[in-house]
Automatic annotation (TrEMBL):
A molecular function GO annotation: oxidoreductase activity
Superkingdom of the organism of origin: Eukaryota
Pfam families in alphabetical order: adh_short
Coiled coil: none
Family to which the UniProt record says this protein belongs: Belongs to the short-chain dehydrogenases/reductases (SDR) family.
Entry protein name: Estradiol 17-beta-dehydrogenase 2-like
Gene3D superfamilies (alphabetical): NAD(P)-binding Rossmann-like Domain
GO cellular component terms, A-Z: cytoplasm
Amino acid sequence: MGELRVRSALVTGANRGIGLGFVRHLLALPNPPEWVFAGCRDPKGQRAQVSGHSPPHLASAEVTDPASIKAAAASVGERLKGSGLNLLINNAGIVRANKLDNETLKDMSEVYMTNTIAPLLLSQAFLPLLKKAAQGSPGSGLSCNKAAIVNISSNGGSIKEVYLWEGIQAACYRCSKAALNMLTRCQSMGYREHGILCIAFHPGWVKTDMGGDFEDKVREFLAKSVGGMLKVLSNLSDKDSGSFLDWEGKVMAW
Ligand code: NDP
């Protein structure tokens, strides 16, 4: 079994929920990264203080603002002092629990911007740093220890299964995550030659502000989900790039 050993990682939406879970777990690895960048839209704000328990490096990133994304990439690049970024975790996401009948242009656009376009723009902005990490790592195959883009998707985006339609329709969210899965596939095709592995994850149904905090048997606890995803990441190779997996490594239906 492999071990996740990266020098640097950046997680978007890292001030709470699954993103904060990633930051905490990365810092607690037996060989933690030297640089864990916790991306949040307001690093000086109260909500970002949640991640101040140990020393992640805060990175200002409003993921719907291209200028903010570019500034984040420049600032991270400066702090890495010439070395690359191994892991980009596109985690920030939103949902609007609309019914099909009251879905709106505004909600469709906002959710698509945050959940689909932002991961595209972030990956483009951080590409030079990801390439640098891949070039600076030994070995010829793809691996998260070299360079990887991790897109946090959802089973809600599965066209085949359409999970939980009776409970929550949220076409805006489903479409955004189905498109994110396609984006992951495209990135895997385009970035393979640069040595960058690309993966889409369903994190499970996790108790967060988005996932809710009900006591039932379905919702996965945060630590279990994030710990599971990091374990899966440590074992990915060429054949996995472009896949849609769950937090336990099971292949999800597109
Ligand atoms: P939360 O609602 O708990 O947290 C969302 C995070 O995203 C927050 O840190 C939030 O920051 C950030 N964010 C939202 N919009 C922006 C933005 N424009 N710029 C920067 N940051 C932003 O969600 P979860 O932690 O539950 O979800 C994380 C990811 O996992 C999402 O992509 C979600 O779709 C996915 N997912 C979650 C599931 C679950 O059961 N929880 C199930 C399947 C997928 P702020 O505090 O500033 O709002």
